[in-house]
């Protein structure tokens, strides 16, 4: 993203996505607190503009637009559950604000003044612009997670030619399912380069790349499906405390969960002809038939852990996950995407091609060198690893993106979801959240030692 034209195009694309999401809602819906877990949509709308104000104007030595709103849109100053009570910009004012910021950013780019006197590390390879584009795409996914928690219908993903709010109408994932897939693939042991090696604007937590020896292991060919998870539920596993670790049992007691978030009974659970186990799921305010072939989503890390134990397996570490997704043993090369080093549409369910995960094994052309499918897109995948820095880590350009979250409190997720834009996804990308979180578009796959 070091060419001005590419920067302008990427900025335009992400802003069209953002505005496409919020245009579906009136001012009351944009300003409401739909869940204590999430900000009002209008906060995210203005926050992405404030981030640009900070990083694409002021950090590059240009006058800012509205420094007086910095505190309102500082994610560390106010908990999500309190943001509806702040004196936030109203929706129209927020649109004007982010529009004015973007106008000034484009002016400086068009005049060739964007990097004059700017700190070299920020602008080298277009880093700060890639950072801003990825940041806004990430908030777009956050807004979709908030919309999923709204009461009542929000849009209809089943209508022909539609996608999630802000998605690309008329675009469908490529097909190519086959039932003749192995349950797991083997990843040979040996040296592996962990972390980003080819992205100048990868986040600081993806760097520096380092060498690690990984023993041979097996990993599921696809993410765990709804049908497989239905069998887990039907076995009474939510009541089998031996399957849950201490933290998982505490979560069970507090949450009262007995199935993934959004699931509800639709029929007899014992019907052997029903691969969906008698369940429906809630998708953007509507009750939908549960697709037995799609990856399970809206499960927390404790549920993923318990399922893995029930299956006699375990969750992969993030090193194992990244090796399975990116390592080409035949050439000893690290790949940016499972299929190669260039993004190719149709190889993964990313960027709101649809409003849900696609059936497991649908994107055969997106297989990684070891044969694992759909390691990018569909659902974020919980790993067994806490969020920690790589050896030699250095914060850049600010501690609050990664460093303040390091430790054992957060669990790493990998691979992105159907709501993740390709510009914010690669095999080295690291996401993290509390292991209790179920509102994110997360599922998992399992692994075992060999």
Question: Which tags fit this structure?
Answer:
alpha+beta; four-stranded mixed beta sheet; 450 residues; paralog of FGE (formylglycine-generating enzyme); three-stranded antiparallel beta sheet; 14 strands; 2 domains; Four Helix Bundle (Hemerythrin (Met), subunit A)
Describe the structure.
The chain has two domains: 4-148, dinb family like domain (Four Helix Bundle (Hemerythrin (Met), subunit A)); 156-450, paralog of FGE (formylglycine-generating enzyme). The protein has helices spanning 4-22, 27-31, 41-57, 91-110, 120-123, 127-148, 226-234, 246-255, 301-310, 318-326, and strands at 184-187, 190-194, 210-214, 217-220, 263-265, 279-283, 286-289, 327-328, 333-334, 380-386, 411-414, 431-433, 442-443, 447-449. The chain is an alpha+beta fold and 450 residues long. It is globular and about 65 Å long. It has ten helices and 14 strands.
């Amino acid at each position: 993203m070091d060419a001005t034209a590419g920067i302008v195009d990427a900025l335009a694309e992400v802003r069209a996505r953002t505005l496409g999401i919020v245009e579906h809602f009136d001012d009351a819906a944009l300003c409401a607190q739909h869940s204590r877990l999430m900000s009002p949509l209008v906060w995210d709308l203005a926050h992405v503009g404030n981030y640009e104000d900070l990083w694409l104007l002021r950090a590059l030595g240009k006058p800012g637009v509205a420094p007086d709103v910095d505190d309102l849109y500082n994610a560390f100053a106010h908990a999500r559950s309190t943001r509806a009570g702040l004196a936030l910009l109203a929706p129209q004012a927020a649109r004007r604000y982010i529009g004015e910021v973007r106008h000034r950013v484009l002016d400086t780019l068009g005049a060739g003044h964007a990097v004059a006197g700017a700190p070299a590390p920020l602008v080298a390879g277009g880093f700060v612009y890639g950072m801003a584009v990825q940041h806004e795409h990430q908030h777009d996914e956050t807004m979709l997670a908030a919309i999923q928690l709204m009461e009542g219908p929000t849009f209809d993903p089943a209508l022909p030619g539609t996608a999630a709010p802000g998605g690309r109408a008329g675009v469908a994932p490529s097909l190519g399912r086959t039932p003749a897939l192995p349950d797991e693939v083997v990843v040979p042991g040996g040296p592996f380069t962990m972390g980003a090696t080819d992205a100048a604007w990868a986040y600081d937590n993806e760097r520096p790349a380092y060498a690690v020896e990984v023993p041979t292991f097996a990993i599921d060919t696809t993410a765990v499906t709804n049908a497989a998870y239905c069998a887990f539920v039907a076995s009474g596993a939510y009541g089998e405390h031996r399957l849950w670790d201490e933290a998982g049992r505490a979560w069970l007691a507090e949450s009262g969960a007995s199935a993934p978030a959004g699931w509800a009974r639709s029929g007899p659970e014992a019907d052997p002809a029903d691969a969906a186990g008698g369940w429906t799921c809630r998708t953007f305010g509507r009750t939908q038939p549960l697709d037995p072939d799609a990856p399970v989503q809206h499960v927390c890390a404790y549920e993923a852990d318990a399922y893995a134990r029930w299956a006699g397996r375990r969750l992969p570490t993030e090193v194992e996950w990244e090796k399975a997704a990116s390592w080409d043993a035949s050439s000893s090369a690290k790949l940016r995407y499972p299929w190669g080093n260039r993004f190719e549409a149709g190889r993964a369910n990313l960027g709101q091609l649809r409003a849900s995960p696609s059936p497991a094994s649908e994107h055969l052309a997106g297989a990684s060198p070891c044969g694992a499918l759909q390691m990018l897109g569909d659902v974020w995948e919980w790993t067994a690893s806490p969020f920690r820095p790589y050896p030699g880590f250095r914060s850049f350009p600010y501690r609050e993106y990664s460093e303040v979250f390091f430790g054992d409190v957060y669990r790493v997720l990998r691979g992105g979801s159907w709501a993740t834009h390709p510009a914010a996804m690669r095999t080295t990308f690291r996401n993290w959240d509390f292991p209790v979180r179920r509102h994110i578009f997360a599922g998992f796959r399992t692994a075992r030692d060999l």
